[in-house]
Amino acid sequence: MAIQAQLHNSENIGFPFCSSSSTSPQDWMMMMPTAAVPNPSCGGGVGGGFNQFCFNTQQKQRIHQFQNHHQQQQQQSLCFENSVSVQDEKQRQEIDHCIRSQNEKLRLLLQEQRRQQLEMILKKIESKASTLLRQKDGEIIKANNRAMELEILLKKLEMENQAWQRTALEYESMVFSLNNALEQMREKATASCFFFNNNNNGGGAEDAESCCDVEEDHHELEEEENRVIGGEKWKLCKSCNSGDLCVVFLPCRHLCSCKACAAFLDSCPVCLAPKKASIEVLID
């Protein structure tokens, strides 16, 4: 940076004063006008030496002032440059801080929005899940109630089955005992008739009496058969009178139907009681 100035002394002796950052005192001496430089040949003596001394003193003062001013200008320039760099750094830091602050705010805002969205999604999922859980709980309760009802029904059927099995066994035992009694009566009647035929010619009162006894016994046997089991007809179906008895009606427990008629009868043909169930039995 060049600085130009023109200084005048108190005696109106002046000269141009030019300076720059590269100007030295020697250059300044070279730029002085020749009229201002004392010449020893012109009036050399004591007067000339005094004038030269005074001029050198003023020149040194001006040079010193110039140097001080130049240093001040350099210091001001350095201060200005430093202040500019400081301001630039400060502005850069402020911009960075603002950007970081905006980034942090944006990050927090996005985080909050994400949290709210997740909360909404979780609430929807919880609502649907609770609805489904309530439905499943209701289905489980219904299934448990149905299972309990089926267990109760199964126990009831098992008890009824056991009761029917006991009843069937009782009927089988009764039929077996009746068959045995019938066979015994038949054997007794056959033996009596055989004995009567063998002794028919040996007659006499005793034979006639024996025959009468046999006839009476045979008549009693028939009455007993008719009374107990109704003769041979007890094996016939009470509905069609042709099929073999093999079905017991419940709850009246009458052995009164064949297998073919049992499918069409709604009531017992003996007592006319409503049929609730039936059991097929085996009769020899």
UniProtKB/TrEMBL annotation:
It comes from the Eukaryota. Keywords: Coiled coil, Metal-binding, Zinc, Zinc-finger. It comes from Dipteronia dyeriana. PANTHER family: RING-TYPE DOMAIN-CONTAINING PROTEIN (PTHR42647:SF6), SBP (S-RIBONUCLEASE BINDING PROTEIN) FAMILY PROTEIN (PTHR42647). This is BOI-related E3 ubiquitin-protein ligase 3. Pfam families: zf-C3HC4_3 (PF13920). The lineage of its organism: Eukaryota, Viridiplantae, Streptophyta, Embryophyta, Tracheophyta. The keyword Zinc-finger applies. InterPro entries: Znf_RING/FYVE/PHD. GO terms for molecular function: ubiquitin-protein transferase activity; zinc ion binding. Residues 108-174 form a coiled coil.
